[in-house]
Design a protein that fits this description.
The protein folds into 3 domains: about 180 residues, FAD/NAD(P)-binding domain (3-Layer(bba) Sandwich), CATH 3.50.50.60; about 130 residues, Polyamine Oxidase, Chain A, domain 2, CATH 3.90.660.20; about 90 residues, protoporphyrinogen ix oxidase, domain 3 (Orthogonal Bundle). The chain is about 35% helix and about 25% strand. It contains 11 helices and 20 strands. The relative contact order is 0.18.
């Protein structure tokens, strides 16, 4: 049996690795010149640096188990980190429950209700109760209108490109669940982890393990179409090549999947009429000095056109990235946002202006390098009253499976969630492949 996997991000690589460990040969088809997806990287002065910011939490058990299985535990380093807020021209720490409850922009009653909101989220275990409630209604009910307007609304506007009104409460619930814990609520410090040498070490080791187990990762292999013969997925078409397969797994977003299925088979998938996705435009600044003490600086100020500021070298030791201090400036965008039409020169001007506004002492000559990266499909939007951006794992076309980040719900999409999703969906594929192999064996004996 040979399985094709379209998409070489962490989800596709994890699926290939887990299938290979079960003795199933797989081929990962990645259209770019290297695998990894959003775990991409660049080299500066001989050091590998992640293009986008990532972190490992101590609660990322599936990711850490995978890291251990492929022998990378010694390449992961954990450190204590801090979180902050920027609003009304000031920086405020948000490292623990005490910081939340003393947050100066809020009144004493609003601080109390903010704490109650966090506790309510931590105690809620039935996300389905929140799926039909808007994030604004839920936050206002728990924390009051004042807390929402001063704190949550600017953050939601930044995250969802100003269009959070149809976002369900599951989003903020998932975020609070991931970034908070009973330890944090008790005032203890949270630890985050990173890969020494960037996430390249994870991508490279997964790719090497897949090859060692008899499977393959093919880069520069853009799939043009999934071939359907006798009503069954039977392979993929590349540029000038047809690759026969026994099954095909698609890990791409639904808008990409729609273009891979030939008519009239596409209608069998019952794809949602619209699949809204957030993209990201992310500036990466390499500074010669630290900017803040915070790993994540949440920007709750609508005058700053950024989703946040992530200074990863409050976590990553600067010596592991050439002595630079890394500052990421992400902006999550919908396709119609004018931000998407700005060229790199305009974005550079915007970034420097925003930093000078936030940090009056900031000087442009602190910036040693500035890079800008763009991704169109980063996070699917689950909207109130509209079909989820997902289809079943086992599609209506035999031999075709859809396993993508639209199905990771209500969890946030990240490396841990992708590895967990691979593990959760693997039994479905193995069950069908086992049955198909048994049928083939019976047919051969006949």
């Amino acid at each position: 049996m040979k399985v094709g996997i379209i998409g070489g991000g962490v989800l596709g690589l994890s699926l290939s690795y887990f299938l290979s460990r079960q003795g199933i040969t797989s081929i990962v088809f990645e259209g770019k010149d290297r695998p990894g997806g959003l775990l991409d990287y660049l080299q500066v002065d001989g050091h590998w640096i992640d293009k986008y910011y990532h972190c490992i939490l101590s609660s990322d058990t599936d990711l850490l188990a995978l890291v251990d299985a492929i022998g990378l535990t010694d390449r992961v380093c954990f450190r204590e980190t801090k979180q902050g807020f920027y609003t009304r021209g000031h920086l405020y720490p948000m490292a623990n429950a005490r910081d939340f409850l003393l947050f100066p922009p809020l009144s004493p009653i609003e601080r109390f209700r903010l704490g109650w909101t966090i506790l309510a989220a931590l105690r809620e275990n039935d996300w389905r109760r929140l799926e039909e409630v808007s994030v604004e209604d839920w936050l206002v009910r728990l924390g009051g209108r004042g807390t929402f307007e001063k704190l949550w609304k600017p953050l939601l506007n930044a995250k969802f490109d100003g269009s959070f009104q149809d976002i369900p409460a599951t989003y903020i619930w998932s975020r609070l669940k991931r970034t908070s814990s009973t330890r944090a609520a008790a005032g203890q410090k949270e630890r985050m982890g990173y890969f020494i040498g960037s996430y390249k070490v994870l991508v490279d080791r997964l790719t090497a393990e897949i090859a060692r187990l008899g499977s393959e990762v093919r880069t520069g292999a853009r799939v043009r179409q999934i071939t359907i013969r006798h009503g069954r997925a039977s392979g993929v078409e590349l540029d000038g090549e047809l690759v026969p397969l026994d099954a095909v797994i698609v890990t791409t977003p639904l808008p990409v999947l729609a273009h891979l299925i030939p008519d009239p088979h596409r209608e069998l998938l019952d794809l949602p009429p619209t699949s809204a996705y957030l993209g990201v435009i992310c500036g990466l600044l390499l500074l010669d000095r630290p900017l803040t003490p915070f790993y994540t600086l949440n920007i709750a100020d609508e005058g700053i056109p950024l989703t946040g500021l992530i200074e990863t070298t409050t976590l990553i030791a600067p010596e592991h990235v050439g002595g630079y201090h890394l500052v990421y400036l992400p902006k999550y965008v919908t396709p119609t946002n004018p931000f998407t039409h700005l060229d790199d020169t305009a974005l550079r001007t915007l970034y420097l202006s925003a930093l000078q506004q936030m940090f009056p002492d900031f000087r442009e000559d602190w910036v040693q390098h500035l890079f800008i990266f763009r991704e169109r499909f980063v996070e699917p939007l689950h909207l109130l009253g509209k079909p989820r951006p997902t289809v079943p794992v086992r599609s209506a076309i035999p031999g075709l499976y859809v396993i993508n980040n639209g199905q990771i719900y209500p969890e946030l999409t990240n490396c841990q969630a992708s590895v967990r999703h691979a593990l959760r969906t693997l039994p479905i594929v193995l069950e069908d492949i086992g049955a198909a192999a048994a049928d083939t064996a019976v047919s051969t004996r006949r």
